[in-house]
Design a protein that fits this description.
By secondary structure, this protein is an alpha/beta fold. Helices cover about 45% and strands about 15% of the residues. It contains 8 helices and 9 strands. The two termini are about 35 Å apart.
Amino acid sequence: LKPVKLRESLRSVLARTSNKTMAQGAELHRPRSNLALMLLLALALAGVQWRSSSRDSQEISFAGGPTRKHSGRAGNLMSAVDAAARRRGCTAREAVGVFFATQTGNTEAVAGTIADKAGVEATDVSEYSAEDLAGYDGLIVGCPTWNTGADEYRSGTAWDDLLDDIKGSDLAGKPVAVFGCGDSSGYGDNFCDGIEELHETFAAAGAKMVGYVDASAYQHDESKSTRGDKFLGLPLDQDNEDGMTEDRVASWITQIKGEGMPL
């Protein structure tokens, strides 16, 4: 039976049993057995309701679990509730957050692709503090490179206001993966420099950095975000290689799962 029909059937039986018990109230030996039956039926009804509600509520959980996507005020409210709950330690399972900041919209689009592949939601980091980020069990963070050639504050986004606070956070052992957007043709000498800045920021807080990518697969000249033959995260070029983004993201998500990201 479907949960709704089963609940209706149980309620009907429970009502008939209750009426019968009241009618037989003068008999001393029968109400006791009827009362037991009523209790069993009530417990069965409660079980059906719990099972139905738990299946429905599975769609809405803290970041990292199955979620229903929200937008506008509903999305902001859910983000605020999640953040407050995490600060109080009220998470039901390991939570992974995908956070981005953007200039032209490319990083936001990429964050959405990553979130879809990872089964979580992407959130603009401007609504969060370093303390909020520290409440997650794993982080996937991304930025553009806007201030090309700069030694610091390279993204020109909300990340610039959080970098120092994040360095002072305690992220000991938590997995963090970085992604970034760049233009390998127009800005080939500073391709995805922002990745290195985010990488070093979270590493300074004690995070376990994951998600390094082979640099030979990209058409760029130089980048501050390479170490040896690896990028310190996932570079994505929406201006020249957007057709490769889906496959790159899919491979990267598989990689970071194997490196300890609790997805």
